[in-house]
UniProtKB/TrEMBL annotation:
The keyword Membrane applies. This is 50S ribosomal protein L27. It comes from Kordia antarctica. The chain crosses the membrane at residues 12-32, 44-66, 86-107, 119-140. It comes from the Bacteria. Keywords: Membrane, Transmembrane, Transmembrane helix.
Amino acid sequence: MYEHVKNLHSYFAYFVLLILIIAVANAIIGFATNKKFVSKDLRISLFALIFTHLQLLIGLILYFISPFGMKMISTNGMGGMTSAQRLLALEHPFIVIIAIVLITIGWSKHKKQQTDKRAFGKIAFFYGLGLLLILSRLPWSQWLGL
C-alpha cells in the first residue's frame, strides 16, 4: 500500500505543479495586460486550488503510512535524522501545508476584489508564493532519481 500511495503522490505532483504554474502564469499575464477576469481564468485558478488540496490529502495519507513520517521522528528524534530524512519527515510536509494555506488565501481574497486587475494580482501573488515554497521543499534528489 505504501508504494502505491507514494507513486500516486509522486506522479500526481507533476500534474499539480503544471496546473499551478499555468495558474500563476495566467494570473501574471492577466495582471500585466489588464485582461478581464473571465470564467476560463476562474476555472484555471479553481483547478489549481482543488488539485493542490487533493495532493495534500494524498500526502497526508502517505505521511502517516510512510517510514519517513511520524515513525522516523518517534524512532530517531529530530537530532538523529540526516538532512534528507528531516526533509521528508518535517520540512516538506510543513512548508507544503503553509504553501497550500497561502494558495487558499489567494483564492478567497481574489473573490473580494473590485477590479479584474486586483483579482489577477491576488492570484498571482498568493499562488506564486505557494508555488515557490513548494518548489523549495521538493525532495529533488529522490524525485529526479539523482
